[in-house]
Amino acid sequence: MGRLALVSTDTVMLLSACLRRCARLLYWIPVTVIIVVVMWSYYAYVVHFCWMMFLCLFHVCFGMFLWSFWKAVSTPPSSPSVEFQLSSSDSLLYEQERGSMEKSQILLEISQKLPVHTRTATGDIRFCHHCQLIKPDRCHHCSVCQMCVLKMDHHCPWLNNCIGFSNYKFFMLFLLYSLVYCLLIVATVTPTFIQLWLGRLFDSCVKLHVLFLTLVSAMFAVTLCFLLFFHIWLLASNKTTLEWLSVPFFADGPGSEAFDVGVRANFLQVFGEKKIHWPFPVFSSQGDGHSFPLRWQMSSRSPSVMNGNGHCVMEGIVVSPEGVSVTIAVDD
After folding, report:
1. What's the predicted TM-score (pTM) here?
2. In this predicted structure, what is the pLDDT of residue 94?
3. N or C, which end of the chain is more exposed by having fewer CB within 10 Å?
4. Where in the sequence numbering do the catalytic residues fall?
């Protein structure tokens, strides 16, 4: 009986591992769909719709799109540093405590050494039981990536990646260049599409490619336009998608605009101060992703203090940010 139980357990574990691997392969289907559609659009535009005057501009847009797409897909999300993880002694002490009040007190004492301001809706320190760490501000656990992600925005199935501090700039550029790519195709192919509509185009192969190029590009352009402008609004107000869905909390309550330090400063946090880096998918974001400057109510007698990004701000009363711990992946 013991051997049968052991074999049964091994079989279950093997099947579970196989299912996990199959699920990981399924996650790449949306990415594959994007690659196939883009490669077909390149073939149809360059081979069957070759206007020399537009080819140079087309290849510039195509190259920037591919670059930003690759960076958004291949750049792994950043996870909290070791200092946010419980030590073996702290973890043992935390597990030994039975009451929630005692556990909360342990986490509160540990967090005094860390740049942590956000809380749960009940006012407790945000703690990830999966990763066994105290969550930095704006950090959340992704159920798909199975890790805590710094400044998590959402998990994007079309990129099979978690969008957060390390790759949010790449994601924004991906949306921008995708939209430009689609609009360029629509603008240059539309005259030929009109000829097709009026019955002046007789090549059946060209007809098919022109029809699908126009319709598919227009459809994607409309979708990308809404998505890009939504994320531009989030960027301007310094919010993530998760913070838009669920307002963050601080020790003294909720505050939806706690991280909003002005449109220009919000933009520089993601794109950096060097303008030459803005159009390119190279990492230039400010800070380390663990702490962020808060919005302060200026006080005339407040001394200057350093925020998490090393910039000097005036100490005052925090306009408390609101937000509960979100431990699920949010799709686009």
Report:
1. 0.83
2. 86
3. N
4. 156
